[in-house]
Amino acid sequence: MRHRLWFVLTCLLVLSLSTQTTAADLMGELRYDMHYLTETKRFDRSQLQYKLKLDGQVGSASAYHLSFEGDAVYRPSVSASWELDEAYLDVYLSQLDIRVGRQVINWGTADGINPTNDINPKSFGSLDALELKGEPVPAVMVAYYQPGGAGLTGVCVLDYVPAELPPGFDLSSVSGKPTGDGDQFEIALRGELPVRGWPVYLTYFNGWDDLPAAWLSIVDPFDPTAFPVPGGRYRRVQSVGVASAVDIKGASVWFEGAYKAPERLDELEAPLNLAMSSNDPYSQLVVGCDYSFDNGLYASAQVVYNQGGSLLAPFFDPQKGRKAQTYIMARGQYSPWDRHDLELTALFNATDRGALFLPKYTHRLAEATKLTIGGVYVTGSDDSEFADLKQSVQGLLVGLSVSF
């Protein structure tokens, strides 16, 4: 099904481009990123990233998008890659929009962390953003709009794309991936209802979890020197959510929440297995606001509650079990002079008192050239979830980007 989708999409693009293309924009970006770890005195990342994007209009009722990205990594090892990012075709009808192809679908009203956004597999990207970045999936999206503001959007994901495992986490045995006989499909629905001028979004998702459920199997309970064997299994999950956002006297206020129910696995409750994932349903809630002051200062803050555990570590310690976590995420942006921007992002764990600070300075050297200098600072007790991050993330960030 995935190969058929690409064949149909490619044929449509070639046909449209060769007959009635009216406009096309080619854009790109070159960016150098360096992340130096001050605790261990080594480079975590030193790489050149490149992106290329082509957008075109096909007549008055359709458009296309193609994007490619890659990187040339110099530290800690030498490698290079170049791959397709997004590739989709849009068709616009009177009250209906259709998008077919490899795409990222962003749902939700919160800042960076969206409980109602389950379609694309997510992993933390660059630390200077603290946002969950979605990976493209092959999908068909159909959106129907009513004149009064109501609407319904349906998404069918044609092939399951798992998220990357966390760095340093090795699962020697993983099972349960879809076989491809129809069980790989995922569906998502979003309804939009205007309530007294407030847009309210209701969502439903039935698909696959981004990561497999994990456990440690005790090989010999009578041998204390025998190491447990890690195991994992992919499973389906269902989610229902609600989100809304409204402007109040110049400030934007948002709410977003979801209830997620993963498929139950016997392996997580077996007597000789130490579970690192849970069969229990859990909720995620986000409440926040932002405001732009007259002097150019922008500030935002939101509270994130995750009953499923840590936002940074998808698998919990078998000895401690799953514990709900509450976070406070804050951002501030200010431009003291023309072409100079200051930014501070902070993530506090209100449950164990740990914190992560990301200060950043940006100087716009020219219209399309930016230099950024920032850092990552971690604080917290030895019991904090951020304690293990100090050696792996605390350090200096430098970036230089050129757009065209």
Report low-confidence residues grouped into runs of 5 or more.
none
The overall pLDDT, averaged over residues, is 89
Beta content:
over 45%
> How many beta-strand elements?
24
Helical element count? 2
Helical content band: under 10%
Outline: globular
Give the biggest beta sheet.
18 strands, antiparallel, barrel
Distance between the termini: 36 Å
Rounded to the nearest angstrom, the radius of gyration is: 23 Å
Summarize the helix and strand pattern as letters: HEEEEEEEEEEEEEEEEEEEEEEEHE
Q: What structural class is derived from the secondary structure elements? A: mainly beta
Quick rundown:
With 404 residues, the chain is mainly β.
Q: Could you walk me through the main structural features you see in this protein, from its secondary elements to its overall organization?
A:
5% of the residues lie in helices and 56% in strands. Among the domains are: 1-81, no CATH class; 104-284, no CATH class. It has an 18-stranded antiparallel barrel. A four-stranded mixed β-sheet has the order 10-14-13-17, with no helix packed on it. Strand 22 (355-366) and strand 23 (369-379) form a beta hairpin. It has two helices and 24 strands. The two termini are 36 Å apart. It is globular, with a radius of gyration of 23 Å. With 404 residues, the chain is mainly beta. It has helices spanning 2-19, 390-393; strands spanning 21-37, 42-58, 62-75, 79-92, 96-103, 122-124, 132-134, 137-145, 151-157, 174-175, 186-195, 198-208, 213-217, 229-233, 236-248, 251-262, 273-275, 282-292, 298-306, 325-337, 340-349, 355-366, 369-379, 395-403.
